Amino acid sequence: xxxxxxxxxxxxxxxxxxxxxxxxxxxxxxxxxxxxxxxxxxxxxxxxxxxxxxxxxxxxxxxxxxxxxxxxxxxxxxxxxxxxxxxxxxxxxxxxxxxxxxxxxxxxxxxxxxxxxxxxxxxxxxxxxxxxxxxxxxxxxxxxxxxxxxxxxxxxxxxxxxxxxxxxxxxxxxxxxxxxxxxxxxxxxxxxxxxxxxxxxxxxxxxxxxxxxxxxxxxxxxxxxxxxxxxxxxxxxxxxxxxxxxxxxxxxxxxxxxxxxxxxxxxxxxxxxxxxxxxxxxxxxxxxxxxxxxxxxxxxxxxxxxxxxxxxxxxxxxxxxxxxxxxxxxxxxxxxxxxxxxxxxxxxxxxxxxxxxxxxxxxxxxxxxxxxxxxxxxxxxxxxxxxxxxxxxxxxxxxxxxxxxxxxxxxxxxxxxxxxxxxxxxxxxxxxxxxxxxxxxxxxxxxxxxxxxxxxxxxxxxxxxx
Length: 466
Hints:
Helix content: 40-55%
Order of helices and strands: HHEEEEEEEHHHEHEEHEEHHEE
Shape: rod-shaped
Distance between the termini: 58 Å
Oligomer: single chain
Number of strands: 14
Strand content: 15-25%
Mean pLDDT: 79
Number of helices: 9
Low-confidence stretches: 4-11, 421-426
């Protein structure tokens, strides 16, 4: 059984996979592979250049050593050098190139003029800690400060009674380091430029390659919002099968929905007349049985209406056409003004150019229930207004009645529950309106009106009316 840590890890990975889109994944993989490859290339080039710089320094010091050997001579059992040392920097103080000759058992017998000033300590101790064997060239990094390359060569000088002479040539490493750093800087800039250029090209290629996927996603959103009836068929070969199957599924769902709604309409029509006949017949029967039967007939009629409303509202996408709110509200209000003529309701209908993306029959059902609720419980005034924000339309129905207590607001939204048991009704009007609103991802809330009574806020997906 997996532990909590494994479950959390799987959940976190799932969230990460959902957040990271196809384009981001392809670019991330490209960046990782490109970074590894270019990093390896940069590392290889840097090491190769460092090796070549070191080899160049070795060749330079070897050439200086040969020049000193050619310039050296012996006079009166002493080693002397002419004015030409083979390398002009050896004659320049602090030039960065230094040389001296060490004789076994006698110490240093000659120093180049370049050692005169700040490099005067050169020759006091061996830069390598050892002397090479006769005929051996040794090239290493000297154990001196500042850091230097050193070339050492030991030769047996026959004219000096076979003395062993070691020629030491040293050069500051700073110029060679500067070469390596400059090469590294230029290589980094070059590789970064290549990486950025490649990523930009890859981004353009990925966006072009995924354009059909984005087009399909956009059309699916439009389909969900009700602005399209299918997703089209202008897709590449890899997506054409998926698009074709989706279009078939959409058409199949639409046909099923239409067929189901027609069946519901037929059912409503076939039940309406028998229920009316039974209701009229109950009036000719007296006694408690007639009252019970009449209540049951009314209950059947209400239940059929409620269930048909719910069934008719089930749909997979939003309607393509937006329905203006104000004309529908005005139409319902005029009918209710006649029905409640004895109240002489003072109706305030605020006209707003707003429309909601719901089926017109469902809007009539929802507004009919909530506006009738206001007319039923008002004392004198009813106000209907609408306002739009963030892609939704809030329809506000207010009255100046007794209102609904906060403790009862959640309960009266349940089917069959009523806060007022004196008025006629079955307590399902607000429940039907709420269920229809939820089908469209809307809400229905109860509150206190500025008029003193109840406030019903019906919020639905909307679009500003052109």
